[in-house]
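MODEL INPUT / OUTPUT PAIR
PAIR INDEX: 1
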Amino acid sequence: MINKKVANVSEALVGVKDNMTFMFGGFGLSGIPENAIAKLVQIGVKGLKCISNNAGVDDFGLGLLLQGKQIDKMTSSYVGENDEFERQMLSGELEVELIPQGTLAERCRAAQAGFPAIYTPAGYGTEVAEGKETREFNGKMYVLEHAFDADFGFIKAWKGDAAGNLIFKGTARNFNPNMCGAAKITVAEVEELVPVGELDPNQIHIPGIFVQRIFKGEHYEKRIEQRTVRQRD
């Protein structure tokens, strides 16, 4: 069995450099690879093209990379609660590709499966389809969307083993499984890292074949993006 365990986040990010394309799992602040993002901020890589559902908030998650002007392009489905993301987009400082959320997921999954492109009805007849090939199937029009081509995919899982098998927890599952194996190198950070054989095979969400590096993350803040509580009686 191949051992994909690396000692820490620094070792997991070997080969990262300026002007690369990165995928980041997560939805809002749920299931984001906190350790990988923090290290990318620390090492100061620039000119990044990032693929993620959104860009966190101003002072957390991918928002930290935006603050440092480390991202040149965001491919997302949602600007979200990030004022700096919105400001950079409207000012032209940041190139933004806004795409339907399902299309984002399927372009990840196409890359994961080795498909060069997919046809989707989402966006046909709108600005999303401008300049793209369209085709009719069974009387319905579809838009050709290309699979993503990323250098690194950064994934957050709850539990994993040294072979790279992963288990996600709750809503943190979101985009993470679709991004596993969708980049040239998939780096998974987990809260619990166990020896091979300790995970129940029936509980594994992503097999290790889709992961190249895995490490145990530290100090997860797991910040809540929007906290809603009911009024006291």
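PAIR INDEX: 2
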Amino acid sequence: MTKIPRRRFTARVLPVDVQDRVLLLRGFDPAKPDQPFWFTIGGALEGNETLREAAARELYEEVGIRAGIEEFAGPYAERMITFEWSEYVFTQDEAFFAIRVEGDAAAVSFDHMEQIEKDTTTGYRWWSVEELDSTEEVVHPEEVAMILRKVIAERAAG
């Protein structure tokens, strides 16, 4: 079967809690439901959105956390990737932003996800750098521990 090509620009979000752990979602490609993976929050820009506006919208839609665009730091990494998901092959530019969350502001809710996201997202977890370094589970991007280290180092530098 021929995949449908899609080109997009995305904002990825790394919510980081007071214990320096990053929030990742667990899900699967509907074409490969037996191959789950962990991934960062985020998605494509809509209309004339800026990357930070898309980051704020995606953070709310995917995990129910509200934040203003001024609260996002970064980008801490940028890359272009190509991957397959469902009937599509995506080529996407990604910019990774971080945001500090704590207390009730860190409560996760899937209530605002699109239906396809609800159908393919199976959970969430807060991960430390050490846990990311030692896991044998699939995590996208593979460099998320390195990006988290940059976020933590910037906070420590004040």
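PAIR 2 NOTE: The chain has one domain: 4-157.
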